From TrEMBL:
<keyword id="KW-0547">Nucleotide-binding</keyword>
<dbReference type="InterPro" id="IPR036390">
    <property type="entry name" value="WH_DNA-bd_sf"/>
</dbReference>
<dbReference type="GO" id="GO:0043138">
    <property type="term" value="F:3'-5' DNA helicase activity"/>
</dbReference>
<dbReference type="GO" id="GO:0006281">
    <property type="term" value="P:DNA repair"/>
</dbReference>
<dbReference type="GO" id="GO:0016787">
    <property type="term" value="F:hydrolase activity"/>
</dbReference>
<dbReference type="InterPro" id="IPR050474">
    <property type="entry name" value="Hel308_SKI2-like"/>
</dbReference>
<dbReference type="GO" id="GO:0005634">
    <property type="term" value="C:nucleus"/>
</dbReference>
<dbReference type="Pfam" id="PF14520">
    <property type="entry name" value="HHH_5"/>
</dbReference>
<dbReference type="InterPro" id="IPR014001">
    <property type="entry name" value="Helicase_ATP-bd"/>
</dbReference>
<feature type="domain" description="Helicase ATP-binding">
    <location>
        <begin position="279"/>
        <end position="451"/>
    </location>
</feature>
<dbReference type="InterPro" id="IPR001650">
    <property type="entry name" value="Helicase_C-like"/>
</dbReference>
<keyword id="KW-0378">Hydrolase</keyword>
<dbReference type="GO" id="GO:0005524">
    <property type="term" value="F:ATP binding"/>
</dbReference>
<dbReference type="GO" id="GO:0003677">
    <property type="term" value="F:DNA binding"/>
</dbReference>
<dbReference type="InterPro" id="IPR027417">
    <property type="entry name" value="P-loop_NTPase"/>
</dbReference>
<dbReference type="GO" id="GO:0005694">
    <property type="term" value="C:chromosome"/>
</dbReference>
<comment type="similarity">
    <text>Belongs to the helicase family. SKI2 subfamily.</text>
</comment>
Amino acid sequence: MIPFGFTFKKAHLHQLSVQASILLCCNDSEEDMFGDYDSFCGNDSLLAQVDDIEHKYLQDKNMDVKAAREITVGNLQSGIHQKKQDNFSASEKASVLKADKEGACQVQDRDLVDGSREPAESLLDDLPSSQLLYFEKMDELSSAFRTSPDSKERRECVNSSSNKIRSPLSYCADAEHRNRPMDFSSDSKCVLLKTESLKDHLKSAMTGNAKAQTLQVSKTKQLKEAVLSEEIFVARKAIESSSVDIGPFYGLPSKVKDLFRQLRGIETLYEWQHDCLMLESLQQRKNLIYSLPTSGGKTLVAEIMILQELLCRQKDVLMILPYVAIVQEKIRGLSSFGIELGFLVEEYAGSKGRFPPIKRRVKKSLYIATIEKGHALVNSLIETDRISDLGLVVVDELHMLGEGSRGAILEITLAKILYTSKNTQIIGMSATLNNVGDLQKFLRAEYYTNNFRPVELKEYVKIQDTIYAVDSKTENGFTFSRLLNFKYSSCLEKADPDHIIALVTEVIPNYSCLIFCPTKKNCENVASMVCKYLKKEFRAHREKEKQDLVENLKNIGNGSVCPVLKQTIPFGIAYHHSGLTNDERKSIEEAYSSGVLCLLACTATLAAGVNLPARRVILRAPYVANDFLKKNQYKQMIGRAGRAGIDDAGESILIVQEKDKHLVRDLVNSPLENCYSNLLLELTKGMQSLLLSLVGLKIAVTCEEVNNFMCGTLLGVQQQLLSKEKSLSEVIKDGLENLIEKGLLKGRISEKDHNSECTLTITPLGKATYKGSIDLAYCNLLYRDLKKGLEGLILESNLHLLYLATPYDVTSSCSPDWMIYLRQFNQLSAAEQKVADIVGVPESFITKKASGQAIRKNVDSAVVNRLYLTFVLYTLVKETNIWNVSEKFNMSRGYVQNLLNSAASFASCLLHFCEELEEFWVYKALLTELTKQLTYCVKTELIPLMEVAGVLEARAKQLYNAGYKTLAHLANANPETLIKMIEHLSRRQAKQIVSSAKMLLSEKAEALQEEVEELLKVPTDIPGTH
């Protein structure tokens, strides 16, 4: 018998096997499969040929093994290549040619780099699984034969589990199809290799081949997947070597370019985008700040850098965005890329997010987070020593560093990343940056800027009936443009003294228009006023779709619709502000984006929120509420003018009263505001919060270490902001002493030497506070409330628990209606009324307040207001209808919606707080369920659907009623079927819903798989094993 080390002529054997397997596939009878095998080849028996080959090589026992193996590779390659040519159809050839053209160079490069890989290895993909098994065993035994002379005497048993052969293609980044396990006969499971001849092996192999299932995967698809895998490999190598020529699409596989074309309609990049991506500083992985006008295409550059990090460098990425709505929009937009390219997209917003995140073994994660959740995520990665897993952090709207408590939190997050991880790259982008030098020092970053805008922006101001163009070259900043050409009656002049109707009718209904108003009430008034004086022809424009929108809003409100919207929508007009529910806002945004609505009267929040551009932007007045407009706000608002690919130019018109003329002149010609640190201004959420977490995370535990850290913050760069009386080290010392007094830190700070080496430690309460992201202004009060709750927590209903989960910082804006307060109190059960007494609001107080009597007993107004808001939440959780609750409590439905969102987020923080304190163990299970209730506030059966990014209550009801009742239903849905079954659903929305559902399902499955692998992992420290 031929020794198994000799694999010469393996390719010939393969060809014979293929011929046999083709013939065998025609035979339905298993018993008669080899009854008369000589008849296959007529006089020249197939297996007789095998016998001849075997005898021939038995005679030449001195053949060099190494040479034989080399010849085998060549023959195997040519044999398989011939088989490929025979089997491909003409269309497949065209596809392969295209794929080869793009990837041939890279494949050769890889072969040169990876010399250990056999050329025939990738070609084995074409072999049937039975041949693969056969050749694998031949190779195993050949190496055994070379290493052990006695191996001839050994019996080898092929393990049944090895029947499941997995194709290398299944490891491609976007492989959707996996090779199916092959079903072999029991006879082939254990083969006595010593006594069997090669002929018997071939017979066994052909049997398995004939019975194996045919893979239902097209060759074209497999080859495309192979090309993608190769390109990712080459791109990864190229980026590591920092070469200039970094691959087909900025170091990424060409499939990424195809996805941008298919999903976004992007054919080519702007010149500035190309220049930015090719910056030498980026190739060297330096931090970067880049600034361009709104609508310039900043986000696309960031997304390409994110994909480079995930696919080529195989690192996780954190993207920080300012608002929950933008996070959800980005989740929907990038889930399709994750599905196709094999990475996970995880949401960290509101009450969503896992701390620390699951450590993935295979797929990398893109975390998309709000500022607050991004900070908590970074803390958890530092604590678990995983911050180095984060390869890239992208911050949108970097100018928010200078905006209040959220700016302070953003500064803290970035400072911690800079200090703890030298290999994490930070990219910041904004349309409105001025003192870039300070930000560069803080982030140790390069700077790139460009004035590019895809659509020209023309700025105007209107004073009375004259429109002036903004021109910084002239002495007074304005040049005359034109007079308004619109005839006003005396009645209309009184109703519309600012000529808004004249300005909007120049563009609507054929083009879109935004009117930014100072207040929410003003938005509604402007929308009502405009539609009153529009001609009836405006109603005819897309009339059916506008009727559908009103009907949709009616469904959202369970039969109720806002009377203002009911009046304005038939004319294509609506308002947009925080007084709307999430569902209403989303429906109006979608209708505006699709052109059903042509005019939105909105507040300044829309300028920083979701992307809704317009042909013309009108600023109703140079004010936001009662404050005069800032240059940053002005730039963001007018930046919405002009839609790339639709408009030739965008226009902004600022309506100015004569009294404000000089202020507006200064506004339009002034530079952007500087960005200053808010660590000191926001003391409990800024400086003190930072100092507490530095000690808690062991980033800095002595005064000297804390001082070193603080020098690297934006405040450290801008020390001129500090008052002359106190230095930075003195401010730090005061902050640490304050934390020790509050019982959050332990240690002693020397009066003489601020830089003493005394080590500070965190107390359990301090740890719970920073891990729960609790505002330090309320942490002691929260602890006392939870402690008091343990003495007599009333669990007949969730009222008592809801009181504990009602945020402290919303109570100051609440003014209770005492009659409603009393009515709601009287509807409670006796046990629930006891809750009011426990927290410190006796029935007598509410009764006297409602009847207008004098109150002698002093009752804490913050507690009274907090309980009132708890009644709102309690009613909402029971009824799950924002409209009904807002009417009952005489509040705007937007206020109720925001209260619910705040409570859900605070309940999540409360849960993390309680997890760190053993005495509060009882709250853990209770708060887990309550957080879920507050997050979704819908009937239980809708929760799985609402977990999908962008699916709100109204859409979830539609999907549920159409039969899509689980996450799996949505993940496997056909977008075209969804469009037919769900009213008011566009093709783009349907695709995004399916992609988001697939991503969420994939994420959950990965998490379970990781858990299983962790459970099955063999411990390295088993006693007695060493």
